[in-house]
């Protein structure tokens, strides 16, 4: 009897092995790693307890300005304006669905105008964010994240020296809370990202003048195209729109501003570290500098 039971078990195992041999294994989820885009937020959050550190190295050169009518004017011959920036972004997963982020910047500003030159270095304004994952990507549903952002006035904004040609201006002076949404969708071999953040500056006293900056919108769209051996290409567009400033209760006309930046880049990544080299160009604007920038960033996960 025992021998018959053992034979039956062996035959059943053989039958199960034969039955599963013809079935295809479940396909692995396509989830490539990269440094992401430069300005557009990527929706997937850090895992609980995970710390991500991402430095950015910027070289910004101003080739001209866009006036209040959106017309471009190049700098006068002999004039120069450029900047080096070192930004640091840190992201930490409080839970698998809640993340806290902090970003700060140190910058060196240089200007030459009408034969005079000046330079100044210091910290710019800083940012603190909370991001919550409302929906994870499933089928045609994208990854959806809600964001709360607070800009903090850590950069110099008043008592500026006219001899410094504007190089000692590092921030706006206002506390700016904001709210936004961030989407990410994978369509192999592409990953698409988009975000929009509305910010509401609070009143600030600047050199004795009550100043109220208008609310503003940052919006970004980006796409990554993944290549073999860890390489990927990146293209994004970044926009900004803000209305006129109010001073001592009166509207200052033609102080509104906007710009549109286009940025291509190339990256290389492995599981532990990711890199991205990109070029940014401001292609249109109103009351804005026309900048060209080279950016290098890397990501390291603890």
Folded structure, characterized:
About 5% of the residues lie in helices and about 60% in strands. With about 300 residues, it is mainly β. The relative contact order is 0.18. It has a single domain (about 35-300), classed as monomeric porin ompg (Porin), CATH 2.40.160.40. The strands form two sheets. It has a twelve-stranded antiparallel β-barrel.
Q: Please, how many helices?
A: 1
Second CATH tier, the architecture: Beta Barrel
The level-1 CATH class: Mainly Beta
Helix content: under 10%
Terminal CA distance reads 59 Å
Do you know the CATH topology?
Porin
Q: Largest sheet, order of strands side by side?
A: 1-3-4-6-7-8-9-12-13-16-17-18
Number of domains: 1
List the helices and strands and how they pair.
Elements lengths: L1 H20 L29 E16 L5 E3 L5 E14 L4 E16 L2 E8 L2 E10 L7 E10 L23 E12 L2 E10 L4 E3 L2 E4 L3 E11 L4 E12 L2 E3 L2 E3 L4 E13 L3 E14 L1 E14 L1
Antiparallel strand pairs: 1-2, 1-3, 1-18, 3-4, 4-5, 4-6, 6-7, 7-8, 8-9, 9-12, 10-11, 11-14, 12-13, 13-16, 14-15, 16-17, 17-18
Search tags:
mainly beta, twelve-stranded antiparallel barrel, Porin, 7% helix, four-stranded antiparallel beta sheet, 302 residues
Summed up:
The chain is mainly β and 302 residues long.
